[in-house]
Please model this.
Amino acid sequence: MTADATPSYLFVDEDPLQLSALRRLLRDVPGTKRSATSAEEALRMAEEEPPSVVIAAYILPGMDGLSLIAALRSRTPGVLCGLHTTQLPGRDIIPPGITVLLKPCPPERLRAFLLSGSGNAPK
Model:
């Protein structure tokens, strides 16, 4: 992403309440924010507009969050990926470069994660 490009965020969770909470919490973070309730929907959205940052739940309909992240990374190298989950998956199954964000994740940690991939991180 170039310095003047608008960041694009993709939030993926089967629970619409979780997605709504993420959008409310991050409403003032600059950039385009989209949400999907399934991995299939997220993949379609990413085809239309590749995201710069993805936060995916671990449990999703159709495929798990790690499989979704792997698919997105193969299509969009360099995408910043976070796994939003209530339970920490075994460390041996989390590929390098994926940030685990345990639910409930402190708002300042979520914001810092998003801003780290947007080009708007505090200096």
Remarks:
- The chain has four helices and five strands.
- The first helix runs from residue 16 to 25.
- The mean pLDDT is 88.
- Residues 39 and 62 are 6 Å apart (CA to CA).
